Amino acid sequence: MRLSKESKELKAAIINDYGLNDKAALAILQTALEARDLMKKAQRLVNKEGLTTKGDRGQIKSHPLLATIRDARAQFLAGIKQLNLDIAPVHDRPGRPGGR
């Protein structure tokens, strides 16, 4: 799956900030970002169509893509956690990064 421009930029930043260079880590990152793109795409559709839809008998029910959003978000966060990216990157000097 091709990554969105935003995810490609995020991938490059993560690789640079965290120094990822082994094939396994890059594969996990790719998969996590694909899940992120799916989440974003589904979220755009839900934002357009609404949180609810009518069922086949006219009843109101949750939009079916809400489960896709939930699952894709969990996959993205699991990939980030598996790569230990849920912690701050190592910097070459002590203290907080500049401008923050």
List keywords for this structure.
mainly alpha; elongated; 3 helices; 2 strands; 100 residues
Notes on the structure:
The chain has helices spanning 5-18, 23-49, 65-82; strands spanning 52-54, 60-62. The relative contact order is 0.15. Helix 1 runs antiparallel to helix 2 and helix 2 (23-49) runs antiparallel to helix 3. The chain has a two-stranded antiparallel ribbon. It has one domain (5-82). The two termini are 34 Å apart. By secondary structure, the protein is mainly alpha-helical.
Largest sheet: 2 strands, antiparallel
Number of discrete domains: 1
| End-to-end CA span | 34 Å
Quaternary state reads single chain
Strand segment count:
2
Principal-axes geometry comes out as: elongated
Per-chain topology:
Elements: H1 5-18, H2 23-49, E1 52-54, E2 60-62, H3 65-82
Antiparallel strand pairs: 1-2
Helix pairs in contact: 1-2, 2-3
Would you summarize the structure shown here?
By secondary structure, this protein is mainly alpha-helical. It has helices at about 5-20, 25-50, 65-80; strands spanning about 50-55, 60.
